[in-house]
Structures are given as C-alpha cells and as structure tokens.
Amino acid sequence: MLRTKSQNLAVIGLALALVIGGASSLVFAHGDAKGVVKDRMDLMKDMADSMKVMGAMIKGETAFDPALVVEKAGFLADHAPMIPDMTPEGSNDHPSEALPTIWQAWDDYVADADALAAEGAKLVEIATTGADQATIRAQYVKLGKTCGTCHDRFRKPKE
Ligand code: HEC
Which CATH architecture does the domain made up of 5-154 adopt? Predict the structure, then answer.
C-alpha cells in the first residue's frame, strides 16, 4: 500500500503518542518507586527516549542519521530481553503500572519482549545496510507497535 508522506507522519505521530504519551509527568508521579519497579520504569524511560530521538529524525525535525538509528534501535534490541528479568512475580506495588495479568500470561509477556527485540534488530539491520528513509520509517512504525502491544495488555491504562 502506498501512503503519502503526510499520512506516514500522522501514523508516526500517533505511534509515538501511544508509546510515550504523558511521559513528562511520570518523573513526578513515580518519584516514590523503589527497587525493581524503579529500575523497570527507568529502562522504559530510556526506551522511550530512544524512540523519541528516532521519531524526531523520521519526522524531519532533526537531521537524518542512519548511525544514530543503529545506535537507538540497537539499544532497544539489546535491552528488550531484560524486561522479563525486571518483572519478577508480584513486583507491581504502588506506584507500578504493571498488571497482574503479566504473571498469568507470562509466555505472552516474554513473547512481546521478544517481538520488540526482533523488530529492533531488524531496524538495526535495515539502517546498517543503507536502506532509504521510507524503509527505515516503515520499520520504525513496526517497532513502535511492539511497545503498544505489550502496554495494551500488561500495563494499567492511563486514568
Ligand atoms: C514486554 C512488555 C513491554 C514492552 C515490549 C514494552 N513495555 Fe513499556 N512498560 C511495560 C510495563 C509492564 C510497564 C509498567 C511498568 C511499571 O509501572 O511497573 C511499562 C511502562 C512504560 C513506560 C512508563 C514508565 C514509567 O516511568 O512509569 C514507558 C514510557 C514505556 N513503558 C515505554 C516503552 C517503549 C517506548 C517501548 C518500546 C520501545 C516499551 N515500553 C515496550 C511493558 C512493556
């Protein structure tokens, strides 16, 4: 399917909003998080930052730089497997937004983390092999969807 550039930008904007929406208020709201919950939130924030850096580039707000895509997508691919490790059973005390369904559907949770790792690795590969911007953009959108897939099922919706 062919899309115009502006439609693609709208998709990216939406993907970013879904993934990192409201992130600026999190530091304050989650100031009292401790231990593994805090580590997990910090990792998620770093992941959101990586998405933002790539998103700004893809939207044309910053200079297009495939090496930076490789770095940020590589960060996501490398750290995705740590998400299950950082989600020990029952680690959702206040102010965590992790849902108890994580431990009821553990294999799906791990599969969602694997999907993030796989799509991140694909973006690294695409950006390394000199793909054009449209191809990179399409893979970026795919990658962003893996964040939403896990959040939709395993993270408390925003009030
Ligand atoms: C395998 C599941 C999973 C994947 C994949 C995932 N997340 Fe999360 N994310 C969570 C869970 C669970 C929480 C809630 C953590 C908590 O509050 O204890 C969360 C919380 C967050 C938060 C809020 C952090 C905070 O300070 O409360 C942000 C931002 C975030 N994720 C960004 C991302 C981005 C960006 C991606 C993709 C690049 C991503 N996540 C992929 C499970 C996932």
Answer: Up-down Bundle (1.20)
Q: Is the Cβ–Cβ distance between 69 and 57 less than 8 Å? A: yes
* Dihedral of the alpha carbons of 126, 8, 5, 117, in degrees to the nearest 10: -10
Task: For 5-14, write each residue's pLDDT tens digit.
Answer: 666 666 666 6
Under DSSP, the state recorded for 34 is -
Pocket test for ligand 1, best of 76, 124, 151, 153 (most atoms within 8 A of CB): 151
For ligand 1, which residues put their CB under 6 angstroms from it? 19-20, 23, 26, 30, 37, 40-41, 44-45, 47-48, 51, 76, 83, 96-98, 109, 112-113, 116, 146-147, 150-151, 154-155
Cα-based torsion angle of the residue sequence 49, 54, 80, 145 in order, rounded to the nearest 10 degrees: 110
Predicted TM-score of the model (pTM) = 0.87
